[in-house]
Design goal:
Blueprint: H1 3-28, H2 41-63, H3 68-92, H4 101-129
Length: about 130
């Protein structure tokens, strides 16, 4: 595995994922996902960085993805499974049995789009670093 590609593309991907999160959740869909004012932005950034490094690891170590189109598709698939995993578990821990399936579907769709775009960026950076 090319460690330089992994670290650079993963870091860029994490930053991009963080910025997409701010755009989608903080601006475009703020009404559906209101802020409670207690967000820890350091933890959010570290989570985004982890996602970027995780995706970059898959792309550089296992899949050899360095084409933005392939990265877009692979990112979307990774994002779909991550979103389903997170939403199922988040809803399993609710104190009330009411599950808002519309918000859940919106969150899954947003995560898929963000992950696809991030995957494209990671693959593009991988391709440029070769």
């Amino acid at each position: 595995m090319n460690v330089k590609n992994f670290l650079v593309s993963g870091s860029v991907g994490g930053i991009i994922y963080f910025l997409y999160g701010w755009l989608f959740y903080g601006i475009l869909f703020k009404q559906a996902f209101p802020s409670n004012g207690n967000e820890n932005y350091v933890m959010i950034f570290l989570g985004c960085l982890t996602f970027g490094l995780f995706t970059a690891y898959i792309f550089t170590k296992w899949a050899g993805i360095s084409n933005w189109i392939t990265g877009f598709v692979a990112g979307a698939i990774i994002g779909l499974f991550m979103a389903l995993y997170m939403d199922f578990f988040a809803n399993s821990m609710k104190l009330t049995p009411d599950i808002n399936f519309q918000i859940m579907a919106l969150d899954i769709a947003i995560t898929v789009v963000m992950s696809a775009l991030t995957g494209a960026v990671i693959a593009l950076v991988n391709g440029k670093l070769k």
